[in-house]
Specification:
The N and C termini lie far apart (48 Å). The protein is globular. It is mainly beta and 143 residues long.
């Protein structure tokens, strides 16, 4: 009976820990006129964490951006945005990815300027990932 209590405590701890208020809400960033190169819709999410919205890779002049529109997600203590080779989940976390940094907002529109032309052929998934607890908040496959 004790192992079951320990497992239940661990699951409850993980669920509560990834929901701390640490990320601002209501992003309202724009990049102006741009060309959409790839797009996708966020789906998925584990343990009740669900990120939703539209994700695009856009080009403006000679700069590239990862753009989130109509975004909505739960909050968390260590939530990052990844370009990844796999969708990843708690059992099989992504192991080949580029970390774009912490998630900027829990809702709204926001962008990440990319340092170079994104390699969407090999890194075609965008993940919202709680790194501390290895929980996927959502993902999309860019097409």
């Amino acid at each position: 009976m004790k192992p079951i209590k320990n497992i239940l405590f661990l699951v409850l701890f993980i669920l509560v820990s990834c929901k701390k208020n640490s990320i601002p809400s209501n992003g309202n960033e724009t990049i102006g006129q741009s060309q959409v190169l790839y797009s996708g819709k966020l789906i998925g999410g584990e343990a009740g964490d669900e990120a939703r919205g539209d994700v695009t890779v856009e080009k403006t002049g000679n700069k590239y951006y990862l753009v989130f529109k109509n975004f909505n997600s739960n909050d968390g203590p260590d939530v990052h945005v990844y370009f990844s080779k796999t969708a990843g989940n708690h059992s099989n976390p992504p192991f080949e990815y580029f970390d774009l940094g912490f998630m900027k907002y829990t809702s709204g529109n926001f962008n990440y300027e990319l340092p170079a032309v994104p390699d969407v052929v090999n890194y075609k998934y965008v993940l919202i990932w709680c790194a501390r607890f290895r929980i996927q908040f959502g993902y999309t496959e860019l097409k």
